From TrEMBL:
GO terms for cellular component: plasma membrane. This is ROTUNDIFOLIA like 8. It is a single-pass membrane protein. Its main location: membrane. Residues 1-22 are annotated as: Disordered. Pfam families: DVL. Belongs to the DVL/RTFL small polypeptides family. It comes from Glycine max (Soybean). GO terms for biological process: negative regulation of cell population proliferation; shoot system development. It is found in: Cell membrane. Keywords: Cell membrane, Developmental protein, Membrane, Transmembrane, Transmembrane helix.
Length: 46
């Protein structure tokens, strides 16, 4: 999974107008969700 490509998943929605801050915030949010899912999967017991 390449995290550096701006056209990941075809989601090129006004990346230039939002700027680097918006893209960085989106990456941080995505990493937070992935991290929460991994922790949930690791800590989940039947």
């Amino acid at each position: 999974m390449k995290m550096g490509s701006p056209s990941m998943g075809g989601s090129k929605r006004r990346l230039s107008s939002r700027g680097l801050g918006g893209a960085l915030r989106e990456q941080r949010a995505r990493l937070y969700i992935i991290r929460r899912c991994v922790v949930m999967l690791l800590c989940w017991h039947d």
